[in-house]
Amino acid sequence: MRSWRWYLSKVMRLFLRWFRLCPRRGRRKRSGRVRDLWNYGTVLLKSLYYNVLTNSDTVLDCVFEPIYWLVDNMTRWFGVVFVSLVIVLTSSIVIIIYLCVLPIIFSTYPVHWILWHLCYGHWNLLMLVFHYYKATTTCPGFPPQEKSDIPTVTICKKCIVPKPARTHHCSICNRCILKMDHHCPWLNNCVGHFNHRYFFSFCLYMTMGCAYCSISAKDMFLDAYDAIESSYQTPPPAFSHQERMVHKSLVYLWVLTSSVAVALGSLTLWHAVLITRGETSVERHINRRERKRLKLRGKIFRNPYHHGKINNWRRFFGVEKRSDWLTRVLLPSCHLPHGDGLTWDCPAYRNNTVAI
After folding, report:
1. DSSP H or E segment with residue 71
2. Fewest CB within 10 angstroms: 134, 154, 185, 279, which?
3. What is residue 37's predicted lDDT score, i.e. its pLDDT?
């Protein structure tokens, strides 16, 4: 046990150190004292985060770390809200179709058109619900945390674990994701190797369903809109409360489905282009920078995961034979994607290409 003399000497050393930093009265000006205190504080602050590898990017990351944390946590919380919003809006459209649209179809359309709307509409709804459920509940895929013989390309700076090819870190999930495309708040889940097909299929069938409702209900929307506008006439037409609700519901259905068809259709088209090229959203930006870098060196960049347009789609949907286009694409299917997401077979290129 340390004696009181040791504590006294410790206090005296600290006092003398502070006394040296604060010069005696009359020997220095006040500006010199402030400068010494500022330099001393700067040294103390730098000693807390000093690193030989520190650069401007690291400093900016440290400064914006609270903002990143706030955005990540808000996105994680809003993901639940967005999923609930998708369920509520989709359910409202389905309810309006059953209560307002189908009775009009049954009373005015011929039999063959009634069968078409019943078959196509329910098939589209089934595919939409199935793929959305699978996209939100399927794990995107994580690299192994323990030591293994799987080839890796780098070390994740956040997880401090080896990262296989096409693996990237998601700051919202706080994990590395196999073949990460992006974090989707509408799914409250990352889009990765094992649920990428479900995500794209959901976007595709949602776009098809919204376009189908918008086109099919166009005449109903025009009639409902004219009826609502006529209510401002003098005297107004004698519509019952139920008829007015039907008119407003048809306008709501057409506006919502048309807007979603345009917005989500653009996103679906963009992802279709990426699938055709054998890329993800993250790899699109990486490959573009790499393409510019190699072009300055007189070389040509080739995406090492591009197997041809048709083969890229076959690999994406897991199609191995012709019948799979029906059983695995046009019907609900829970089959696993091509590969395990850890290793990738790359096609051989000629000598004038470079694969990264």
Report:
1. helix 65-96
2. 154
3. 79
Q: How far is CA 110 from CA 96, 119, 147, 209, 213, in A?
A: 21, 15, 66, 22, 18
Q: Note whether 142 and 176 are within 8 A (CB).
A: yes
Write down the pLDDT at residue 60. 67
What token pair was written down for 209?
A: 């369903």
**Other beta carbons within 10 Å of 171:** 13
Res 159: pLDDT: 82
Residue type, 260: V
State the DSSP string of 293-349.
HHHHTT-EE--TT---HHHHHHHHHT--STTHIIIIISS---PPPSS-SS-------
Catalytic-residue membership of 139:
no
- In the set 100, 170, 176, 184, the catalytic residue is 184
pTM of the model: 0.78
What backbone torsions phi and psi does residue 191 show, to the nearest 5 degrees?
Answer: -100, 110
In whole angstroms, give the CA distance from residue 244 to residue 65: 52
- How far is C-alpha 159 from the geometric centre of its chain's CA atoms? 20
Nearest to 176 by CA among 212, 197, 204, 152: 152
Centre a 10 Å sphere on the Cβ of residue 315 and count the other Cβ atoms it contains: 19
Q: Which amino acid is at 213?
A: C
Neighbouring CB atoms inside 10 A of 78's CB total: 13
In contact, 254 and 216? CB cutoff 8 Å: no
Whether 190 contacts 142, CB under 8 Å: no
